[in-house]
Amino acid sequence: MRIPARVRATMAPPLGPLMERAAARRREGRELFMLAQAMVDCPPPPAFTRALADALRAGDPAMHRYAPDPGTAELRRALAAHLAGSFGLAPDPERELLVTPGANQAAYQLLSVLLDPGDEALLVTPWYFNHEMAIRLLGGRARTAPAEAASGFVPSIESLLAAWTPRLRLLVLVSPNNPTGARYPDDWLRALAGAIAGDERWRGVWILCDQTYQELYFEGGPPLSLGALPELSGRVLTVGSFSKSFALAGWRLGFLCGPAGVLDQALKVQDSSVICAPHAAQIALAHVLDAREEAEAYLATSRERLRRRRDALLAPLREAGRWELNVPGGACFAFVGLPGGASSASRLAAAASTAAPATAAPAIAASEPAGAQPGAAAAFAGSLLEAEGVAVVTGEVFGPRWSRFLRLGFGTESEERLSEAGRRIARHWAGM
Ligand SMILES: Cc1ncc(COP(=O)(O)O)c(C=O)c1O
């Protein structure tokens, strides 16, 4: 039986083999430091579980039924008020907001309605792999512009503008970023908006802002939303998630905010795929957002907890020296480069030839720069898991050029354990 080439060319979910190895370690009672998951481990806001329990106790029949496709009226109203605060956006809750089962579904719906086969979407690398996978599945093409480690993983505006082609339909930005943790500076976002608005060629290009980590930032106030800037009015589509900010990943809640004309089209995809986000979860989330002060206090506590965890993880690597470190400004990841230098190449080569990689090989044409060692960080990560029990994700899954990098997640282990994990990573490298 024939499977279309665009589907076969799409990378398999890349973390599966790693998660299986980690689960096997757990089953065998062996130590495991889980730095591979894009999750936060704290319980959700108490208002969420309270509202769910109340609805169950009251026997509310609505929670077992479909919700309206675009989300319940109560949640869209509460969400619009929430977005005005945390995102600086002012959507009409009836026409410019869609409640989705997560941010991934929101992005997939957008890509479905904005790309024709052969159309291009511009991704910043290292990319969020599910965006690249979705573009391929839909028959689109991902163009890329790099965000270099030396620039704090913030891409240059010139490189983004220069990536324009007549087939470009969409620019995708993720800030705060997965996998780098970079928070694009507000001034950079303003300058980008001005540059795009002033460039005739870009007139037909949409901008998709994935702001899944909008509320997880570590310094200053909330990040600026491009969707709030008048220069780009009517061109920006914002997707967001409650998986991380409110630790509700399993309840599948996210949103899509943008011009009604696009959302009307995206609703067709939602209706024909998932119909609606889980109804019971929508009822409970509306309560969380309505209890504004409690929600704000919860988010402030999460930010502070993550900030301390970030520092605990990075301190041992900084102390070890020579690791390429960028301090994440948000999200729950650090994207770190293995130490460079003369002896590194032979260590990496040795690791690559002996250890099993920790993640599935991506089905992407990786054009590594000269001197890089494809698979080397994957091999390091594989032996790190085996020898030290630390599970991390290797750079390859975030696009070509990143095989010397590791994504270290700090959302699911305590400060103390992250500090120990950081020591083990440094020790393992030093001992190779
Ligand atoms: C940038 C980004 N977008 C979207 C998602 C998926 O979020 P959701 O659980 O809301 O689908 C993730 C999850 O890791 C992410 O990192």
From TrEMBL:
Annotated ranges, domain Aminotransferase class I/classII large: 44-421
Gene3D superfamilies: Aspartate Aminotransferase, domain 1, Type I PLP-dependent aspartate aminotransferase-like (Major domain)
GO molecular function term, any single one: transaminase activity
Protein keywords: Aminotransferase, Pyridoxal phosphate, Transferase
BP GO terms, sorted: amino acid metabolic process
Enzyme Commission no: 2.6.1.-
Enzyme's top EC category: transferase
Record organism: Eiseniibacteriota bacterium
Transferase as UniProt keyword: yes
Transferase is among the record's keywords: yes
Protein name in the entry: Aminotransferase
Pfam families (alphabetical): Aminotran_1_2 (PF00155)
